[in-house]
Design goal:
The chain is mainly β and 134 residues long. It has no helices and ten strands. A hairpin with a 7-residue loop joins strand 7 and strand 8. It is globular.
């Protein structure tokens, strides 16, 4: 595996989920691409078990930093970079929810835990904890 992407190693080969609302679940499944040259994160948000939103992120190392590209089922695109300090990944960049949407900033932190990870964003007051789904 690309050493800069080693922070994702414990997530690989597994799916992780969090409860967004009583009937809404966000599930992320991580796989390595090309023997660890990149990491793929495919996620699905379901409502009552039916998909309502899907997205895919590819994490890569560009020789200087971790970079990511995101696409979603609404036609949205985004991208940016990430830094790693201790067990925290800090993501910055911009995202368009759909093709005609204005860009929105990405400012998210993932704290890696022994049994999952926690996600925080300044816009949300709650911390979302992702645990092993399958």
């Amino acid at each position: 595996m690309e050493p800069a992407l080693a922070i994702f190693a414990t997530l690989l080969g597994h799916c992780w989920q969090t409860q967004l609302a009583p009937q809404d679940v966000d599930t992320h499944c991580f796989t390595d691409m090309w023997k660890g040259a990149h990491v793929r994160d495919v996620h699905v948000v379901t409502h009552d078990g039916k998909s309502v939103y899907e997205g895919e992120t590819i994490y890569s190392f560009d020789g200087k930093s971790i970079v990511f590209t995101y696409v979603n089922s609404l036609g949205g695109v985004g991208g940016g970079s990430a830094t790693v300090a201790d067990k925290v990944i800090s993501f910055t960049g911009s995202m368009r929810a759909g093709p005609g949407s204005p860009p929105q900033p990405i400012d998210t932190k993932w704290r890696m835990l022994g049994d999952g990870y926690e996600v925080t964003t300044p816009a949300e007051k709650a911390v979302r904890r992702f645990t092993l789904a399958r």
